[in-house]
Amino acid sequence: QVQLMESGGGTVQAGGSLRLSCAASGSIFSIAVMGWYRQSPGQQRELVASMHKLGRTQYAYSVKGRFTISRDNSKNTVYLQMNNLKPEDTAVYYCNLDRVATQEGVFDSWGQGTQVTVSS
């Protein structure tokens, strides 16, 4: 029902920047938490950053001071500004929407993932 469109991934040199976007479409009333996870080969998926609809944010310790999450509730879109990227940031990044309220019920939704590669 809820569809996600991710964009912004790519390949950059260490120290560079990327901006990820994730837009949700559908008959959405509200989204409690919007966030980004990432996963490298052989590793568990980990939370990178999340933002509650009321503004509270959460960041992985490894990205604090470098990444910034934001959301536009009117557009049902979440962004991740990634600055001073490091090779260890290389991963597939997944958009996640937690407690998406629709006329049909409340759901959790995941994006298909977008590759971020940082070269040294």
Features:
mainly beta, four-stranded antiparallel sheet, elongated, 0% helix, seven-stranded mixed sheet, single chain, 120 residues
The number of strands is: 11
Question: Given the C-alpha coordinates, what overall shape results?
Answer: elongated
**Average pLDDT figure:** 96
> What portion of residues is helical?
under 10%
State the helix count.
0
Largest sheet: 7 strands, mixed
Oligomerization: single chain
Order of helices and strands: EEEEEEEEEEE
Rg, nearest Å: 14 Å
Return the structural class.
Answer: mainly beta
Low-confidence stretches: none
How far do the termini sit from each other? 40 Å
Strand content: over 45%
Written description of the protein model:
It is a single chain. This protein is an all-beta fold and 120 residues long. The chain is 0% helix and 62% strand. The chain is built from no helices and eleven strands. The protein has strands at residues 3-7, 10-13, 18-25, 28-39, 46-52, 57-59, 67-72, 77-82, 91-102, 105-110, 114-119. Strands 2, 4, 5, 6, 9, 10 and 11 form a seven-stranded mixed β-sheet that branches. A four-stranded antiparallel β-sheet has the order 1-3-8-7, with no helix packed on it. A hairpin with a 6-residue loop joins strand 4 (28-39) and strand 5 (46-52).
Helix and strand topology:
Elements: E1 3-7, E2 10-13, E3 18-25, E4 28-39, E5 46-52, E6 57-59, E7 67-72, E8 77-82, E9 91-102, E10 105-110, E11 114-119
